[in-house]
Write a structure and sequence with these properties.
single chain; Tetracycline Repressor, domain 2
Length: 208
């Protein structure tokens, strides 16, 4: 009976801890949207959460940890959307590839437009947490390999080196996946470029 009570207490504490972390992330996200990453301090985030800076450090050891948590949410959101596109087996592989590239672009553009100074946070995370970036790229590479293999199986694609093809697509679509480039064109222009790139990629992927 005592054991079960202790377990229940730990579960409540864990839930409360997760609630506090979520509140901190929401406050940090709101402040970053207004002031940017570089001009935001842990003390300001703590104040927004009506807690002391010392208490904030119990949940996140640094501003980088908060930025990484926010970035992780953003990356997982994109990965889930892209996975859903890959899973649409009733849609041709060619159409799914185009949807995949467009979703990548629109996701990046949306977050850049709501957080114009996102480059500051992205740069810090790429430098200090390269494993996060690599995990994200590995996920996309796996998604694209699944798509290409499916196209090969259906006879729509004829790709001998699937991994190399996935890497090439990732390299070609980098401009759509990095916030730094979003200021260069209007979304409509980027979408037109995405359509053109997809058509070019499909010439190399499709069976002859």
């Amino acid at each position: 009976m005592i054991y079960n009570s202790n377990m229940a207490d730990r579960q409540v504490k864990l839930q409360n801890s997760e609630d506090v972390r979520e509140r901190i992330l929401q406050a940090a996200d709101a402040r970053l949207q207004q002031y940017g990453y570089n001009k935001t301090t842990m003390a300001e985030i703590a104040s927004d959460c009506t807690m002391s800076a010392a208490n904030l450090y119990r949940y996140f050891e640094s501003k980088l940890d908060i930025g990484a948590a926010l970035a992780g949410c953003c990356l997982r959101e994109e990965e889930d959307k892209l996975t859903a596109i890959i899973a649409q087996k009733e849609t041709s592989a060619s159409d799914r590839l185009e949807q995949y590239i467009l979703e990548m672009l629109r996701h990046t553009h949306h977050h850049w437009s709501t957080l114009p100074r996102i480059d500051e946070m992205v740069g810090d995370i790429c430098k200090s947490r390269p494993e996060m970036v690599q995990q994200h790229l590995d996920c996309k590479r796996k998604q694209l390999k699944t798509l290409i293999n499916g196209g090969n199986t259906s006879g729509e694609f004829h790709v001998e080196f699937v991994g190399a093809a996935a890497d090439a697509i990732l390299a070609a679509t980098t401009v759509f996946d990095v916030p730094h480039f979003m200021h260069m064109r209007a979304l409509e222009e980027f979408e037109s470029l995405a359509h053109s790139l997809t058509a070019l990629l499909l010439k190399g992927l499709c069976a002859r």
